Amino acid sequence: MLTRTLTWLSLMWLMSPITSTLAQPPPPVATHLIEVDGHKIAFHVTPGHDPTIVLDAGGGLDSSYWAVFAPELARRTGSQIITYDRAGFGASDEVSGAWNVHSAVRDLAVGLEKLHATHRVILVAHSIAGEIATYLIGQHPEWFIGGVLVDANVPDFYTEQEIARMQAIYAPILAATKAAAPTKPGRQLLAVADSFVETSRAFHGASWPVSVPAVVIVSEKTPFDDAADVRWWKDAHAQFAKRAPNRRLVTAAGSSHDVAHDRPDVISSAIAEIAAAHGAKR
């Protein structure tokens, strides 16, 4: 009964603004360059009411990943929408050295604090951003009314066996990147690879706070080709979702890892479900 009620409320919240706002453009996006520990991170803000919806793209991607999804979400919900560029991407400064997930968490946390966006937030995290979301929500659970994990990295996936398998899969890609002319995406890929084992082992022991609900979206096709990796990706997400009663697993049928482009409706419904359960404004 609760699931049916939430689904109905979610659809009502998501669909109700359409007739009055669909023909109108969303409010203009303002870009804020926020300094964090000597480097600047670009945050792009569409003004609106609570809940604030923060969209965090996956590895190798910047805020432009949400270029179609974010304006439509703003039109349909009237919520404040925040996207941003992680260090080294988009309009943000590069940071030298191996990728440090905790520095990435701090970049997002400081940005949200300076934007006064730390109340009734829904964090939508894609792929590697699942790691940032897990640590950030763990540090500040009071900021968030829920999270949407979009085919995101979850702690359960990163066993020692799977870490070794990932190293083997990416070895030829990294070798080709090192041999090629330097590019910004290439440098970032190598930075992530430099800390991959240490970061993944630590993340395997991380936990999502039980006080914060989560909709766990897993793609049908997954990011992998090997059958064993496909199965474990799906099983790990199912395992993560079962760890608390306020988590729900959703399969994005027909979607690749690129869920935001293949099945944006699945993400929108998950956002709406969380917002409706917490009395989202119309």
Report on the structure:
Helix 1 packs across helix 11 and helix 6 (160-179) packs antiparallel against helix 8. The protein has a single domain (2-277), classed as Rossmann fold (3-Layer(aba) Sandwich). It is globular. Strand 7 (214-219), helix 9 (227-241) and strand 8 (247-252) form a beta-alpha-beta unit. By secondary structure, it is α/β, with parallel strands linked by helices. 44% of the residues lie in helices and 19% in strands. The protein has helices at residues 2-15, 18-21, 69-77, 101-114, 129-139, 160-179, 184-194, 196-204, 227-241, 259-262, 264-277, and strands at residues 30-36, 39-46, 49-56, 79-84, 121-126, 144-150, 214-219, 247-252. The longest helix is centred in the middle third of the chain and has 20 residues, at 160-179. It contains eleven helices and eight strands. The two termini are 23 Å apart. It has an eight-stranded mixed sheet with strand order 1-2-4-3-5-6-7-8, with helices on both faces.
